[in-house]
Amino acid sequence: MGIFDKAKDLAGKHPDKADQVIERTGDEVDARTDNKHEQHVDRAQQAARDRLNPQG
Question: I need a surface site. Which of 4, 30, 49, 53 has the fewest CB within 10 A?
Fold first, then answer.
């Protein structure tokens, strides 16, 4: 089992915490880039959520 498999497994067990991490990470990127790439960050956040929880 690779590191990404382990991360996905943990995210499946704790989806609320995984979503918090995704949100905080995106907020940090937005803050450091003065929201210049906000649309890209939002899409990346949604892609991460979809990847960790494909059923919705």
Answer: 4
Domain ranges of the chain: 3-52
Q: How many CA atoms lie within 13 A of 6 on its CB side?
A: 3
* C-alpha dihedral, 12 to 7 to 9 to 3, nearest 10°: 170
Nearest to 18 by CA among 56, 54, 52: 52
**pLDDT for residue 45:** 95
Q: What is the pTM of this model?
A: 0.79
Report CA 30 to chain centroid distance, whole Å.
14
Please list, in sequence order, all residues whose beta carbon lies within 8 angstroms of the beta carbon of residue 35, skipping any fewer than 6 positions away: none
Say how many C-beta atoms besides its own lie within 10 A of residue 11's C-beta: 20
